[in-house]
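Exam review. A common question shows you a sequence with its structure tokens and asks you to describe the fold in words. Practice with the pair below. Do the first one on your own.
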Amino acid sequence: MSDAPELYQKRAQRDANIAKEKKKNLLATKKINREKRRTMVSNARKYEKEYNELERQQIRFARIAKKNGTFYVPAEPKLLLVIRIRGINGLAPKVRKVLRLFRLLQINNGVFIKVNRATMNMLRVIEPYVTYGYPNLKTVKEMVYKRGYGKVHGQRIAITDNSVIDNCLGKDGIMCVEDLVHEIFTVGPNFKKASNFLWPFKLNNPTGGWVKKGNHFVEGGDYGNREEGINTLVRKMN
């Protein structure tokens, strides 16, 4: 090596420095990924504990109310699942605009939205064209795991691993599917970002077909608020 020309020595030194830097970066990346995996596992356990405690709390309150001869009224739901059930025929401009705002561009598209006065007012405008209700944890999990696609640089990308989520929402503390499910289900502080990251779900027609799209759900039809009944519908469409 000492007899080699100076140019070869410089190249060899450069290659050695590059290899050393690559190894250093690789070790640093492995360490970061290892810490992220620990955080993900820890968060998943914490969320499971939180969900179980919430369920036990509701059962406990219901039992106390029954014992006292009263009724337990759960807190108002904060999350809605809205599914479009009708096409574009005879759409008024205002209805078309609201459907676009909700990103419900096709029949059987579904989105999660936060319950507030503004969204409820908009839902009234498009009610004959959608059905909606209060999804439970099982429904949110099934939809994200089975039909979850993320919006990455304007493209529809399947959520095949946690890196898809981490690259887009990691800065907001949402690094994996369990973080995403928790943020949606609890309507957390970053709900809007999490919801916008999820591409509108593409569901199938329900098993056995629709009953009557032109009638409200309470009249034996399909459109409108079906409250907890939305979970049964999603099982037929997922």
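Now try the second one, then compare your answer with the model answer below.
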Amino acid sequence: PPLSDSEEEGDKDKPAKPTGPQYRPPPRSNPLPDNLPGTPEEVAGKLKQQGNEHFARGHVHLAIECYSDAVDLIGEGDEAMQHLSLLSTCFANRAACYHRFNDWDQVIEDCSLAIQCDDTYLKAYNRRFQANEAKEKWHDALQDLNKVIELDPTQAGKLGQKHKRVEKLAQEQFEKDKDEMLGKLKDLGNMVLGKFGMSVDQFKAVKDPNTGSYSISFENKWISPPTLRQHWGDDAAEGVRNGKSRRLP
């Protein structure tokens, strides 16, 4: 669908000075032409409007070019900090173009830039949520959905079922990632401890039900003569052969 009037001219509904801007426009790579029909900001505004018109007609590639040119015109150092509202709209509208192509990585990148310009930009959070959802990045999707509801509490009821689903998937993803991380840590631990005839299985983590903290206990196990000889010398190995068992120190 075409960009709505509220999105095209979203500057009117957003604070004149976005709270906590993080975006720092990069220096302009190419010099501006001398024959600009107006100030860079005026031309950028016209380019944004042309981009909206191209998008409405389905000329998405042309719309992307217009929004990109607008960003380039005003994206020069500290002067551009005065035009964060225009920048955020251009980034968000360009993200809408990439959304048409299911280019989720670019959608996330441009929405993030829009949010850096204006951290109250509801549509940017919502669109980034859709991209994170499509990429099954459930933790990030949940964060964006939480922000949408925070900025517009009236959507809490409408998004209630979706929020429960994403929250459940985010928890499942967390548990999966945690298990994978612990598995990798265990492999690394075994690789190191194996040089000393030990393994991580000999260490047990016991959770304190009162504090929730963990204590680590070590299970002392028998060590074979070859391992003892390698790490503690021939005397230790001979002690095992003569019935004098050796345990880990």
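Model answer, second protein: Residues 4-22, 236-249 have pLDDT under 50 and may be disordered. The first strand starts at residue 203 and ends at 207. Full marks require stating both points clearly.
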